[in-house]
# Entry
Amino acid sequence: MAPAQDLATPVTSESGIVPEKARDGIDLEINGEHFRHTGDPQMPLLWYLRDVLRLTGTKYAGMHGETGADLVLLNGKMVSAVTQPMAKLAGKSVVTVEGLAANDGSLHPVQQAFIDEDAIGCGYCTPGWLIAAVDLLTRKPKPGDGDLDQLPNLCRCGCQTRVRSAIKRVAAGKVGQA
# Structure
């Protein structure tokens, strides 16, 4: 049997076949890894994460990201992934809930505090709460109740009190303690 290369139609100027230029891509970093998006530049980051990369921790939170379940860190600041078109992300760094834990598997202090405080109701909003908590504690290591009131997250199963306790636990340096 002949090699596949021998069976291909040769590309010559006489054939009129001209290969298309490779599409320009959008290069970005997600959870410390390099990715290049060559699809629709208007695709929301949320769908790229969930449908292309299969990082399903970030949840759909409505067309405008109004409940906070779709939060990610973009260059260290929380943003709604559904409101970020891929075209705006060239050269940026994204951290999803899957990227919070260390490479060795050890949990981020906020993740451990959520476990310590049993701050995981049904779990749908939890990834957004984790991202919002990391963002808040980065900006304000000792947040007060007013700061916690400003978080954009909604929870329908009632774990807000435990979430607040988890964030306060991290701020107090009591993660992993009884």
